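To close the chapter, one final illustration. This time we ask the reader to focus less on the individual chains and more on the assembly as a whole: which components sit near each other, and how the overall shape emerges from the parts.
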Amino acid sequence: MATLAALVATAPTAIAEALKTAIVMPGIKTDKSFNQAGYEGVKLAAESLGIDFAFSEKVPQPDQPEALSDYARRGYKVVIGLGGEFQEAVDRVARRFPDTKFIVVNGVKPGGNVATMSFDFPALGYVMGYIAGRADNGDKVAYIGAQKLKFYVELGEGFAKGFKAARPGGEVLTAWTNDWDDVAKGKEAALSLIGQGAEVVFPSMDNAVVGSYQGAKEKGKKAIGIYYDAIVDWPDVMIQSAVFDMRHALVKILTDAKNGTLTGKAYIYGLETPEATRIGSYGPSVSEQVKTEVNGVIEKIKSGEIKAK
Amino acid sequence: MNMFSDLQALTDFLSTGLRLSIPLVFAALGGTLSERAGVFNVALEGCLLAGAFGAALGSFVFISPYAGLLTGIGMALLVGGLLAILAVRLGVNQLVAGLALNILVLGLTSYLSRLLLTGDGRRIVEGFAPYPVPFLADIPLLGPLLFKQDVMTYLMYATVALSWWMLWKTPWGLVLRAVGENPRAVDTAGMAVDRARIIAVLAGCAVAGLGGCYLVLSQVFLFTEHMSAGKGFLALAAVILGRWNPLGALAACLLFGLCDALQLRLQFGQPDVPYQLFSIVPFVASFLALVLFSGKVKPPASIGIRYERGGK
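The assembled structure is written out below.
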């Protein structure tokens, strides 16, 4: 009888303790890219942390404030806006729901009950640049981006700084293609840069990166992958990959939310959180000595001895 | 910039421009054929994408780029068939039908590529290797540029010439242009208007599909979702800029391709020039062409209008 009473007593608290989380996404959860990673991250966190979650797909910008406040009104304690474009909507609604924590992925304005989450793009860019510089592939490498958005500019700048640290006389060529999906243009950009003498290309577009890899492959040059360990698809091209793992980053920030330690600050996951931001696998041409050096560089960035930005 | 002083660099630059323009040329030719017959073909984007998907699928399954080429044309013909049924037979608004098809093809090819082309659709397929034309390939500058290409490029030259000849030098072309200008006259002469339009739409979509085949079989050797990346819409601008003439369309597409190539090149020498500047050139050029040529060259008179027998 006593146990039964205890069960009855604990059951409601157990339900009350289950954190209610919602994610609002600009695209579909099966896009094999940004949205899917966001959705799967929250799902993974829900399963591993025992929290409840809900999601909304394909929410256009004008509807974002309403979608966010709807969840807050319904008692969701953590509401995630997936993408920097949610910053404005969150700014507008956050004050009305002080009991709810908002997280803006790739956001730029934390404060109060608003946290932002992003990756340390310059840091991993620096490491990639350093690897490109020490991989004995010549004095010129290239960075290819789609559009000059803040994070991608910083990634390229980190890459250039790392490369020059490894090769003081080296040069980093940069090209912006103005298209995230155009594979043909991704390839032509890589071919142009290789024509200018680039030995390693580091493209950071979406779908279009495969064009750049193809260009590098045809010319017998090397490339650096992004977001996932690209060597599984391009074994003879990759020397390394910059892995920005959205899934585990979301698990990490939701763990903080569950423990009640989430505050209104910028959560930037860098090399000290390898589950979110890490290097992938090395290509066969990279020597053990270089790998050891790179580990040293990573430690120095973590300790603040090297500034990637 | 020593781009123009160095022959090799110049050849590289022009080759980049040519390669970037080839999918556009096919698409713009397809659009020209269809619009000359009085049917707006906004589905060019979908034709490119369907062609690309078909090319990857055919080459993946049969391990032959020629099989890929045929499958790609087949897929583009399916899009053309739907467009013909909707726009010509059923008289659905041609722009709406075209846009709807684009969305359909985008979704369908993404879905099917995940299903059929294993490994995220990143599977590398067999493609065409460059085939230098004997003697011609040895001409300085022009040789490597024009005659050290692969089969698809030569196919593009042939398609431009053939469609120009067909449109202006054959009775067939006369009928095709007539149904775009004055379908009643064609009907009065005892020829089937809708049939001619359907054939023109099918031919146009098949030609546009070749552009998609080029992307896969000659350029990147794999299919990615939305790899057409708006080229179909750029081709629509080329159709207008080229004044509904295959040779004009070729010139317009070469201009667009060279602008893209210039955008990629100039960034190294002139980092201060905003890269977006070159991206707007095609649209500014089309806009200017519309303004400058207004009154002199008109689009086919009956474009976008469904022909109804006994109608007004």
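Residues 22-240 of chain B form one domain. The longest helix of chain B spans residues 7-36. With these observations in hand, you are ready for the problems at the end of the chapter.
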